[in-house]
Each structure stands twice: as structure tokens, then as C-alpha cells.
Design goal:
The complex is a heterotrimer of chains A (about 170), B (about 475) and C (about 325). Chain B has 14 helices and 13 strands. Chain B is of the alpha/beta class and about 475 residues long. In chain B, β12 and β13 form a beta hairpin. Chain C is α+β, with helices and mostly antiparallel strands. The chains are: A mainly alpha (about 170), B alpha/beta (about 475), C alpha+beta (about 325). Chains A and B meet through β1, α1, α2, α3 and α4 of A and α7, β8, α8, β9 and β10 of B.
């Protein structure tokens, strides 16, 4: 498939090609202006289009929203469930674009982290050095002489943190 | 910076605060900390700074502009704060933000919205989430300010307030002490009017920190500086995905002038396309709420923070009375994050977004000439040094527009981030500078991962000092 | 006594174990605070650093000593160490869990496979040899402790134990009788002590055992709250009898078709929750902890430093 010939065309970005491309160098300001100011499908339009199909959207059920509130540790009793349903359906429609996107090749999702992908395995020497270092590492012990672990708590009893209920009974 | 100048800035703060609601906390003793010793050999001596209030400080409260952390005092300083203090900077206060960094308007704060100092007679948003930091610099309350940039939160407010906003490569500046929103993306950024001040601050903060497991290692830092080449002209790509036909007249003219300047300086300009960029926003709004929902699970009022008087259960849900103190925008994102993480949706949403994020990173690798030390990409032999776009393409809106009852959809606000999220997803260094002095439109220059020096060097060719 | 308990041939018992073992490293799993959940028991929240309390802005730092201990344990069980394991977050709200999630290994655990062989002469079982297969070993954080104080109607939270390193070992459902279970627990306890990776004490909670059990392939029941060997044995006996009675009464379809979790009261087992109503833990790879990437020489070198295993010493494979 030739990508180059359509790079400056109007419709290139409608189909999802995974090939990044650098086009031919601009020779004049007018050429750049033509490129920038020409009508084309922009990222914003792309999103707006997919959102305009919102009629087909399903509003999450009341039970689903209550479940999500509970998982979020948020009130479900007095919550404005309708507001949450409305906003959640819009948010879901926004990210749902990804569901409809085909990934044709194998991609290792672990590479999404912004850390070295390769050659990061520890050698035995380095491994043992880290253990020794950790044992000695009082200087970054995150403890300060004057710091009292329960001092910032609104409720405290005999140096314990406090929950105003029998959580053992309520544990599910 | 002279001690006189520092004093003048500090004295101006109460008045500016009244006008723009810049700070969540002002250090009344800042003036006492001015260094009068003329021989003081500190890099940032007497430069005044605002610290975004999601970065912890020992001597000032850290609230994330949330009711849930009101009056919270951290027992330790963030590494970036410590480095600033050691270099002689004067921390004058904590700056306002969208609660926990969630927002791009600076209007979702327990302390009320920040007003854009660029518009004196109108209540216009300063952009977010580092709204207070941008306003502090724009209003000359401070010489520089620290913000955090998860999906554009430094660059966008910098553009709206017509100042410089730099988001370095992910991992350059320690995140230890930065209250996590989405730590696979969170990056400490620097805002200033004077590029030389910004560079000095970056120089102080650009250090490995053993306390941050995602800090860029010293080995990689050494390799990166060995790869750096100084140039006077650059190969710059203009991504097609970022421009649309509907640019307003106010933008077209200065943009043409700017492009003309680029050509006259001898830079080579190319059209470029990274197809996955158009998925940046949905990727971002899948991953960041998922991480946020996890990171914000710790706020239960038990060990610190505001505690509900009512009890610790609501209808069988542990901690709900205290956690109801989160604002609506935060609650909506926590719910969305849990939707994404739920076992039924996890694979189709979270994992899919991760895969597309990998594709985006790999596409950038095929565009840039500079190698990517994280991915192992050797770089494209005839690749680009930089990519250039606008930071925003429309005037900042009135604060009223984002009044919750009027905003038709939370996703409308998301679109503000369309030009800035791709760089966050790939961890690229990026700076936003004003398209023209005083104009609330920014130009965004981004380089390959780790190539921060090229971004800053090129910026110094292109930006007339914003400082008058 | 156990010897009197014989599973009936028409009611076939199948058992597996889940054992949590505290590693006695010097420091905790993701912080540099002292790992000493016992001696400090009188002073709650003493061995806690900023991270252990989940203070805003703190970050986890992996203690590789825990990896070393887990590797020793895995190697002694002939388990395959995963050279690229990772940590994941398991979300649920609870008072003794400061982060709102537990850092554990879900998607890519530390080791898998392996076995512990029980021998008639050494371990006092009826069979000549019985191999108990290991499913996997994962490394995770321990939680804090909750105490209910009735007089004040409050639960008190102590985080001294929070973030202590644990290895969770899961066996295949290979156990057929109580003797095998007892022998396995004793042998495993000996092993961790011999390797010096844990005190292995059940009484102090350094080792905690859950039992998965099914009879005639009915739904699996998980038994929890088993503080010592005798409660483990008695709970299994009780549960075995209970299910047999249900089956004999023709109620198996109704009462034994759903997995459930039951606790031990000291004299009987009681239902704690249905497995299917269990909350969704929303596992997510930890976005900031590095993967545990080890080069093969880490394993070969640890293997070299391993002491001869107890069975080898006993059988004289190794000259003393």
C-alpha cells in the first residue's frame, strides 16, 4: 500500500494506518499554509464524529452505577445517580473509540511503561549490592525522630488509628 | 536576582491574590528568608517560586485543592522542593489547581477558580490543572512556579496565560513527594517568563532520586548527555493531526508570522504523521482515571486528612462519608476509573489503551532522529529533531462557561487536551511558549524522549523573552 | 486423633492449601522500616514509615532481600522462578490496608510449578511416596491488624504488620487425607526454618494456612481463620462430616453447588460469604514499581548458596 501519495490528500487520516510518515520537505511558506489551513479531518473532528453517534449509547443502569459508587468508596444512598449515569455514559462513549479500533499486529502492553524495555535484568552482583544497600539505608528511612505516626489522624486512641465501627463483623 | 526584587514580588502577592485567586496558601514569613548576603553563591538565590499544591511541603499545608486534605501538613518535603530550597529559591506559597490535578480549566478547586491575569476586565480561565502556578508567573507574583503535567497540565495553562511551560521527559525530575494522579504519566514541570530562569531551575531539578522508582537512572542520564548535539538549525515536523481548517483569524496571522520566522532562521520543515496520535485522548482518559481511582483509594480519613463527623460507613460502604468530600469532577473520574478496571471491561479498555500507547511510542520512534534509550530504538537516520504544533487553538473561555450546571458534558473539557496528551503518553519533553507576546495561544515544541536539551536549545532560538 | 479419621471411600476428599508465610527480612517489603511485627506489639504503629501509612507523595521501594528469600523458598520446592515477574494492585477498602489496595502478584507471579515430596519413612504418611504439587508462589504485602474494642464500639488499627513481606504458596488439590496435610505443614515449616527465611510459627501468625476442600467434586469450600494445626485438622474433619451429612440427606444439589468461604469458630465451620458475591478486586499492574527482572545467573548463584535440604541430610545424600 502506498502511503506517500496520499499524505497530502484530504482523506488520509480516515483510515487508521499504523505507518508514521515524514513527508517531503516544505519549500515555501505558502506550501505550509496550504497544509495547515486546508480543511481536513482533525483529531478533534474525529472525536466529535464518534461522539455524535451518542444516540446509540447505552446509559449505564442504576444498579451498575451503584456498584461503581461502592467500588469507589463513594456514597450510593444520597448520590445523584442520574447525574452520574449521564456523565458516565458520555465518558464511556468518549473512550469507547478504542474498542472499535482494530489492532492488526501483536503489541506487548507491558511496553507502555516509560521505563527501559530491554536489558534491565539485574545481575547477581547488582542484586546482592541492592540487598546490602537496602539494609544500610537508614539515611532514606523516611522516619524522622520527631515524627509521630498517629499525629495527623483526626481520631487516635492509645497510639492506634480508629474506625468507629466493628469492621471485623462487616468484613465481606 | 536581587533581594530588592524578591521583596517587591513578595509584597505584591496579597493584592494579586485578591485579583486572581492564585494561591491556596501564602507563606507570610517568605520575606524573612530573603538572602542578603551578596556573596551567596546559590544558583537560584532570591528567585521567588510558587509550588503547585499537590507537591508536599513541610512548612506549608498541602491540600490538592480538595476538602479531603484541608490543612494537611506533610512531615517531609518533596525532593523537588528540597532541591529548590537548597539552591536558594524562596518558596512564597502553594498554588491553586483543579482538585487533585483533574481538569484543564482551573475551575474545579475547593478554593474557587483561578482567574487569568492576562484578562484584567473579564473572568477568564487560566487553564489547568496547574492554574495557580501559571497565574503566579503571568501576574509576576513569582519568578517561576512548579506545576505537574499528567496530560498537559503545565503546557495548557502556560499557553492560556502566555508564559513558558516546560514538561521535561518522564523521570527527569523526581516525583517523590508529588501526590500521584496517574504516575505512569505524572511529570513535574516548570513555568516561567524568562527562559534562562526556567533553564536554571531545570538544571537544579534534573537529578536522579533513589526514592522515586521511576526516576531516570544516572547511567541513562550519562548516555543521554553524550548523545546531545548542539545545532543552529533543526529538522522540524508539523503533525497533520494537529491542525484543522477552522483556525480563528486571530491565530492565523501570528501563526503565519511564526512559521515565516522558522523558515528565515533556516530550519527545515516537514509534514509528518503519527496516526496513533488521534487516539491520544481516549487512551489518556482510559488510563489516567484508572490509575487515579487506585491512587486516591488511600484517602479515607483514618490516618490523615479531613474526617467525616458522621461515621465511617454509609449503607455498608466503608469510608464513604469521608470520601464524599471529593468534588464532583474527581468523583466522576473515580467512577470512570473503576468502570475501566472492572473485570468485565479491563481487557477491552485498559489493556487496549496500553497497547495503543505502545503503538504511539513506537510511531514517535520512527519519526525522530534521536535514539530512544527506553525502547531501544536507534532513531531514524533521516528523522526529525523536533515536532511542532500549537498548544491550544482557541482563546481561553470565560470561567462561567465551566460552571458545572452549564457544561453540557464532562468530555467537552477533555478536548482542551487534544494537542498535549500525545507527548504525555510517550513521556516526551515538550515546551509551550507564546505564539506572540501576550497572546493566549501557545506553540508546543517536543523532542524525542530524553532529548530535553534540544527542546530547550531550539526554544531559545524561537522565543523572544516573554519578560518585558 | 488423626489416625482415627479415615475418609470414607465413597466420599472422596480433595484438598489444597494456601499458605501465607511472613519473610523475616530486616526491612519491610516496600519501605525501609523495621520488619518486626511481634516484639513491637505493645507499641502500635511504631514500625511505620511514611509509605507504610500511605502518606500522600510517598512511593514504594522494593526490598530485594524479600526476593532473595522467596527465591530460596522457590528453589527448595523445585519451583520455576519467573525471571520477569511483576507487582499488581488488588483493590478493596479495609481499615488495615492503608493504600486502599494490596500490592501483590496476580498477572505474573514470582514462581510456578514444583513440588514437595512426602516420604513414608521420614514424614509418617501411609503411602510410600506422595508428591504435593505446587501451583505457584507470589510475593505480597501483609496487612495491618484490626482489634475490636467492644467497650468503645471502635476498631483499633495497628500498622506494625502492614507491608511486611509475605509469600503466598498455593498447592494443587493433591491432599487425600489428614495425615498428608499434617505431614506437609510440618515439612514446610521445617523447610522455611532451615532456609532461615521465616520463623514459620503458626501461633504468632508468621505462617497462616487456608484450606480448599471439595468432596466428590462438589463445589469448593475455602476454610479460613485456622490459627494452629489442631484447628486446621478439626475444621477439615468437621467440614467433611457436615458435607457428608448434606449428601446423605439428598441436599447436595441445593447446598453444595456453589463455592463458599467458611470460617472456623473453634467447634464448627460457619459461612463467611459466597464466592460469587466476592467484590471485584480490579487487578491492575502497579504503574510505578519496576518489574522484578533477574538475569539467570541470579538464580544459579542463589542455588549455589543453598544449604543441603533437610531430606538430603536425613537420607545421607550429603555427608555431614
Amino acid at each position: 500500500m502506498s502511503h506517500k501519495c496520499v499524505l497530502l490528500g484530504r482523506n488520509i487520516f480516515r483510515s487508521y494506518s499504523s505507518k508514521p510518515l515524514i513527508g517531503p520537505r516544505f519549500t515555501s511558506l505558502n506550501e505550509i499554509k496550504a497544509y495547515i489551513f486546508k480543511d481536513s479531518l482533525s483529531a478533534n473532528d474525529y472525536l466529535t464524529n464518534s461522539e455524535s453517534q451518542r444516540d446509540q449509547l447505552q446509559i449505564p443502569s442504576k444498579q451498575a452505577v451503584v456498584k461503581l459508587c461502592r467500588l469507589s468508596g463513594l456514597p450510593s444512598e444520597d448520590a445523584d445517580i442520574e447525574r452520574i449515569q449521564r456523565n458516565l455514559s458520555k465518558q464511556i462513549s468518549f473512550i469507547d473509540i478504542l474498542h472499535n479500533t482494530q489492532l492488526n499486529e501483536e503489541v506487548d502492553e507491558n511496553y507502555a511503561r516509560l521505563v527501559p524495555r530491554h536489558n534491565s535484568a539485574l545481575s547477581y552482583e547488582e542484586f546482592m549490592r541492592r540487598i546490602a544497600e537496602n539494609k544500610e539505608m537508614q539515611r532514606v528511612a523516611e522516619q524522622e525522630e520527631s515524627w509521630d505516626s498517629t499525629s495527623a489522624a483526626a481520631l487516635e486512641k492509645d497510639h492506634y488509628f480508629v474506625i468507629r465501627e466493628d469492621i471485623l463483623e462487616n468484613k465481606n | 536576582m536581587t533581594s530588592k526584587m524578591a521583596l517587591r514580588r513578595i509584597q505584591s502577592i496579597p493584592e494579586l491574590q485578591k485579583k486572581y485567586n492564585i494561591f491556596t496558601y501564602i507563606d507570610q514569613s517568605a520575606a524573612d528568608k530573603i538572602i542578603h548576603d551578596k556573596n551567596a553563591d546559590l544558583q537560584l538565590a532570591n528567585l521567588t517560586a510558587g509550588i503547585k499544591d499537590n507537591i508536599v511541603t513541610k512548612d506549608m499545608p498541602t491540600t490538592c485543592a480538595s476538602k479531603i486534605l484541608l490543612d494537611y501538613m506533610s512531615p517531609f518535603d518533596a525532593t523537588c522542593v528540597k532541591l529548590l530550597r537548597d539552591a536558594g529559591a524562596l518558596l512564597v506559597g502553594k498554588t491553586n489547581l483543579d482538585e487533585f490535578g483533574m481538569g484543564s480549566t482551573g475551575t474545579h478547586s475547593f478554593f474557587g477558580p483561578v482567574k487569568n491575569p492576562l484578562f484584567d476586565n473579564q473572568d477568564i480561565v487560566a487553564g489547568g490543572s496547574s492554574s495557580g502556578s501559571a497565574a503566579a508567573v503571568a501576574a509576576d507574583a513569582t519568578d517561576f512556579a512548579l506545576g505537574t503535567d499528567t496530560g498537559g497540565s503545565v503546557r495548557l495553562p502556560a499557553a492560556y496565560t502566555s508564559i513558558l511551560g516546560f514538561k521535561p521527559s518522564y523521570g527527569r525530575i523526581s516525583r517523590y513527594g508529588v501526590i500521584a494522579y496517574a504516575q505512569s504519566l505524572d511529570t513535574v514541570g516548570i513555568m516561567a517568563k524568562d527562559l534562562s530562569v526556567l533553564k536554571k531551575v531545570f538544571h537544579v531539578l534534573d537529578k536522579y532520586d533513589e526514592k522515586d522508582p521511576t526516576s531516570l537512572t544516572n547511567d541513562l542520564r550519562t548516555e543521554l548527555s553524550a548523545l546531545n548535539i548542539q545545532k543552529s538549525t533543526y529538522r522540524i515536523g508539523i503533525p497533520k493531526e494537529f491542525f484543522q481548517g477552522s483556525l480563528s483569524k486571530e491565530v492565523v496571522k501570528p501563526l503565519s508570522n511564526f512559521l515565516d520566522k522558522l523558515l528565515r532562521q533556516g530550519h527545515e520543515l516537514y509534514p509528518v504523521s503519527a496516526p496513533s496520535m488521534k487516539f491520544s485522548l481516549p487512551i489518556y482518559f482510559t488510563l489516567s482515571p484508572a490509575e487515579a481511582t487506585s491512587n486516591l483509594a488511600r484517602f479515607d480519613g483514618i490516618r490523615y486528612g479531613t474526617r467525616s463527623e458522621e461515621g465511617d460507613y454509609e449503607n455498608g460502604t466503608l469510608f464513604a462519608p469521608t470520601r464524599s468530600f471529593f468534588g464532583n469532577v474527581v468523583q466522576d473520574r473515580l467512577i470512570l476509573g473503576n468502570y475501566t478496571l472492572c473485570s468485565e471491561t479491563f481487557k477491552d479498555s485498559y489493556i487496549k489503551a496500553q497497547k495503543l500507547r505502545v503503538k504511539l511510542i513506537d510511531e514517535f520512534d520512527k519519526i525522530f532522529k534521536f535514539p530512544n534509550l527506553l525502547t531501544g530504538s536507534k532513531g531514524h537516520q533521516n528523522g526529525l529533531d523536533l515536532i511542532l504544533s500549537l498548544t491550544n487553538d482557541a482563546w481561553p473561555k470565560p470561567i462561567d462557561f465551566f460552571n458545572e450546571t452549564r457544561t453540557p458534558s464532562p468530555t467537552n473539557e477533555y478536548k482542551n487536551d487534544v494537542f498535549v496528551t500525545p507527548m504525555s503518553l510517550a513521556g516526551l519533553p515538550a515546551i509551550s511558549f507564546p505564539l506572540e507576546r501576550g497572546l493566549p495561544i501557545g506553540v508546543q515544541l517536543a523532542g524525542q524522549y530524553g532529548d530535553d536539551s534540544t527542546v530547550l536549545d531550539a526554544c531559545s532560538l524561537l522565543v523572544n523573552n516573554v519578560q518585558s | 486423633p488423626i489416625s482415627q479419621f479415615k475418609p470414607l471411600p465413597q466420599f472422596k476428599l480433595k484438598c489444597g492449601l494456601e499458605i501465607h508465610t511472613q519473610l523475616n527480612t530486616k526491612n519491610k517489603l516496600f519501605s525501609r522500616s523495621v520488619n518486626d511485627p511481634f516484639r513491637s506489639a505493645d507499641t502500635p504503629n511504631l514500625h511505620t514509615t511514611f509509605f507504610d501509612l500511605a502518606l500522600p507523595g510517598t512511593q514504594p521501594l522494593l526490598n530485594y532481600e524479600a526476593i532473595l528469600y522467596a527465591a530460596k523458598l522457590a528453589l527448595s520446592l523445585e519451583s520455576n522462578v519467573n525471571l520477569n515477574s511483576q507487582f499488581d494492585r488488588k483493590h478493596y477498602f479495609y481499615g488495615d490496608q492503608p493504600l486502599g489496595y494490596q500490592i501483590t502478584q496476580h498477572f505474573s507471579p514470582f514462581a510456578s510449578g514444583g513440588q514437595l515430596s512426602l516420604l513414608q519413612d521420614i514424614d509418617d504418611i501411609d503411602e510410600k511416596v506422595k508428591d504435593i504439587r505446587i501451583t505457584q508462589l507470589q510475593i505480597e504485602q501483609d496487612t495491618g491488624k484490626s482489634l475490636y474494642r467492644k467497650c468503645d464500639l471502635v476498631t483499633l488499627i495497628d500498622l506494625n504488620r502492614s507491608n511486611v513481606p509475605l509469600v503466598e504458596l498455593v498447592t494443587e488439590p493433591d491432599f487425600e487425607n489428614l495425615k498428608q496435610i499434617k505431614a506437609f505443614l510440618k515439612k514446610y515449616q521445617n523447610l522455611v526454618r532451615h532456609l532461615g527465611v521465616s520463623t514459620g510459627d503458626l501461633e504468632s501468625g508468621a505462617m497462616r494456612v487456608d484450606v480448599n476442600l471439595s468432596i466428590n467434586d462438589h463445589a469448593r469450600v475455602e476454610l479460613k481463620n485456622l490459627p494452629n494445626t489442631s484447628s486446621i485438622m478439626n475444621a477439615i474433619k468437621y467440614e467433611y462430616q457436615r458435607q457428608i451429612t448434606i449428601m446423605r440427606n439428598g441436599k447436595a444439589e441445593e447446598m453444595l453447588s456453589k463455592a463458599e468461604t467458611r470460617g472456623w469458630t473453634g467447634s464448627s465451620t460457619v459461612k463467611l460469604r459466597n464466592k460469587e458475591t466476592t467484590i471485584d478486586y480490579r487487578y491492575m499492574p502497579d504503574p510505578e514499581l519496576p518489574r522484578v527482572a533477574l538475569s539467570p545467573d541470579v538464580i544459579t548463584n542463589i542455588q549455589k548458596t543453598m544449604p543441603p535440604l533437610p531430606d538430603e541430610v536425613l537420607q545421607g545424600f550429603v555427608s555431614a
